[in-house]
Each structure stands twice: as structure tokens, then as C-alpha cells.
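Page 42, continued from yesterday. The earlier attempt failed because a stray header line got pasted into the input along with the sequence. Redoing it now with the clean sequence only.
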Amino acid sequence: MLRRTAMGLALAIVISGCSAPVKQQQVNAQYSLPLVKTRTVAVDIPESVPPAPQKIRDFRPQSVSPAVIRKALLDEHQRWVGTPYVLGGTTHRGIDCSALMQHVFGEAFAFELPRTTEEQVLEGDRVAEQNLKAGDLVFFQPPGPYNHVGVYVGDGYFLHASSSQGVKLSRLDNVYWKRYYWQARRPVERTQLAQRVMLANEG
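This time it went through. C-alpha cells are written below.
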């Protein structure tokens, strides 16, 4: 009987040594958080999201890289290259320089140029030769009764309807064209011209 009492007392001491008092357990429960394994999910959040236009009429085209102007002009070159020069011509059977500019600006930029070189040279603003950008009209005064016009493509090249070789790309620093260079005009601001490429593609 004495042995049982001693064993019961020893067991009670061991149990009380492995657990905190009731009050302490309540405090621990109040300030301790259970360890729970969580899974991290990666979410791509854009740095900035432009607000959507409230109304359709409020929509304005976003800025477009000027590189699209050059690409549009090179596409026109592929479309017209080799077409023979015909004074007064307006088709792939034959075309003159100002009619080519009409087609190029209409097809590539949805922009209507006047028909003749004399009218086209009055379009937009005059541009210095060293400030030429793709999409600028370049004018020449070669020998003979007619002026000549082409469109600057970039890297020193312009697209035009040559009277001897038809539609082609030529260099501005070519001895002939350098000698008879007259002036350049920018019919449309470059940001608008780039945006017009999108309009022409939608048309």
C-alpha cells in the first residue's frame, strides 16, 4: 500500500514537470500562433495600367514608333518597284513621280496629297536636308520643264519614279540628285504619320 502511494506521488511529479500551470497555458494559447504551412503563389502585377477610356469618342491612338513609317515606305517600294515612268501615268502600267507620291501616302498613311509637284511642294513645313526623316518629301529641279519629287526612306535613300529606270530607291548623295536637290517638306508631323499607318492598315 505504501509502495502504491509512493509510485502515484512520483507519477504526479513527473506529469506536473512536463506541463505548465493552467493559467500559463491560457496565456500561451492567447499569444501563440499555430504553425501552418502556406503555399506562395506568384502573381504578375503590371507596374502601371493605363485607365480605360470612358467613352469610345474619348479614345486616342497610343504613340507609335516612327520605325513603322520606314517599314510602310519599304512596303510601298516592294509594291511599286519596277513600274515604268510615264508622264501623267497613275497606275502600275506607268506612273509619274507626283502620282507615285499620291499613291504612297494614300496607301501607306491614309493621307491625301495633291496631284502635282507644284502643289505638293506647298504641303506642310520646310525641313533642312540634315534634319530629314522618313516620310519627308524631297524635291529636285533637274534640267527640263518639270520638277521632281520623292519620299525620304532613311539612311540616305529616297523612293521615287525615275524617268529612266522607273520606281526605285536612290541615294540622295548620288552626284546627279545632289546637284539638283531643291528642298524638303514634311507634310504631316511624324507622330501623326506613324499613327496613320495604323489607320491605313485598318482601311
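Notes: The beta strands are 90-91, 94-95, 125-127, 137-140, 148-154, 157-162, 166-171, 181-186.
Reminder to self: strip header lines before submitting.
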